[in-house]
Design brief:
388 residues; alpha/beta; Glutathione S-transferase Yfyf (Class Pi), Chain A, domain 2; 2 domains; 8 helices; 39% helix; globular; binds adenosine-5'-diphosphate; binds magnesium ion
């Protein structure tokens, strides 16, 4: 998949922007706050209908305006198409998507049309932070290629919200739960089966790839990287009735706490190096390598499933990687269309034959100007320091 053209209107600090990126590597240089992440965020919106940052859509609209839009012309393996997303948080319909000028009825219809993988400094939190970050990663990744999963996840969340509302009411009134709680629990149980099965399956695929990408990036194979999905239903003979039972039995506790305490919304994905939990035992270097390895594995998997390469977005991560790792990353990227943002040009000496753009802002408005091609530079002999 290649982006042929990007059009933004009143999106973040871009009042209007038209950009025609090239097929291979596109390098975006600019000072902090110039609008580099905003550009990648707009691309992400066109893939998943939302930002990659924890965000509400209102923030994505340029100050002083009521709506924003981002649109991409995409060249897929077989055909081209146009995708446009419009945000109007103050209106009744807050978000709309058009594919080839035809409005989609449900968000699930846009999932998988255009795929991207983003890697940013926050992804280093994938390993060290709490399980919510890892579930979000899995959810976004699977939703991009599996509509059944996206729909099941939405159903699960909606039913859980209803269940929680009923339980909170019980807490306020002291009454017994409304019998409808059973119906919502039944929806939670059936959608949880899809969610846990798919997460398990994708975690298995990731683990297979990640061991290879980890050693490819670190340049050594002493350390074996793996990951494991920890489901609350792991190894149960009859997970469906087990979850039903857990929900029923936890009702009283859940009324006291006002939340649902058991379910896949509490699961975790554990990253391991030589079978030890990385969260507890790992250096900053290992964490960087693992986070990048996970993202490249995600790219591989999406590519295998859809038969087309997603667009790769690398936001401000080059300064986090040393020369050796950057070189190996470059090899891995192959001919994937890639957007790399950076504030220091010296971090990108290895990237020759790439198109270069200047990102700058004036009077609070962002602009991007193409400045030419980066030419081959003398590459030094790479010594291979210990990356760990
Ligand atoms: N809704 C908005 N309206 C106008 N400007 C915005 C909006 N949201 C963010 N910005 C501006 O965008 C800039 C940050 O852009 P960003 O892409 O994060 O920078 P960087 O180049 O460091 O990645 C800031 O100057 C901020 O003021
Ligand atoms: Mg940024």
């Amino acid at each position: 998949m290649k982006i042929r053209e990007i059009n933004l209107v009143q999106f973040r600090n871009y009042e209007r922007l038209t950009l025609r990126p090239k097929d291979g590597i596109n390098l975006f240089f600019g000072k902090n706050g110039s609008g580099k992440t905003n550009l990648l965020e707009a691309i992400h919106y066109c893939a998943l209908g939302k930002s990659h940052r924890i965000n509400n859509d209102q923030n994505a609209i340029m100050n002083g305006y009521r709506e924003a839009s981002c649109a991409l012309d995409i060249q897929g393996r077989l055909s081209g198409f146009h995708i446009r997303l419009k945000l109007q948080p103050e209106e009744a319909v807050k978000k709309s998507v058009w594919i080839d000028q035809k409005k989609v009825r449900k968000f699930s219809e846009m999932m998988g049309c255009f795929q991207c993988v983003i890697f940013s400094p926050e992804d280093l939190g994938l390993i060290r932070e709490g399980p919510a970050v890892r579930r979000r990663f899995l959810d976004m990744m699977i939703s991009q290629v599996n509509r059944k999963y996206f729909i099941a996840l939405q159903q699960y969340r909606a039913a859980m919200e209803q269940r929680n509302a009923i339980l909170r009411l019980c807490r306020q009134t002291g009454r017994k739960p409304d019998p409808a709680v059973e119906d919502f629990e039944a929806i939670m149980v059936s959608s949880a089966m899809t969610v846990t099965e798919e997460r398990n399956r994708y975690a298995g695929m990731l683990t297979e790839k990640a061991a290879e990408t980890y050693s490819a990036i670190s340049g050594q194979d002493r350390e074996v990287f793996s990951m494991l999905y920890h489901s609350f239903l792991k190894d149960r003979d009859d997970p469906e009735s087990e979850y039903q039972k857990q929900l029923r039995e936890s009702r009283e506790d859940d009324i006291r706490q006002g939340i649902t305490t058991c379910g896949p919304h509490r699961d975790d994905l554990v990253f391991m190096l030589n079978r030890r939990n990385m969260k507890l035992y790992s250096s900053q270097g290992q964490i960087r390598t693992a986070a990048l390895g996970i993202k490249l594995s995600q790219l591989n998997i999406l590519q295998e499933i859809s038969g087309d390469s997603p667009v790769l977005l690398l936001d401000d991560v080059m300064s986090e990687l040393d020369k050796g790792r950057r070189m190996r990353l470059l090899e891995k990227i192959g001919n994937t269309q890639t957007f790399i943002t950076c504030s220091d040009e010296s971090d990108l000496d290895e990237f020759s034959e790439s198109r270069v753009y200047d990102v700058y802002s004036e009077d609070g408005k962002g602009y991007i100007r193409e400045t030419g091609m980066k030419q081959e530079t003398e590459t030094e002999q790479i010594t291979d320091p210990d990356f760990t």
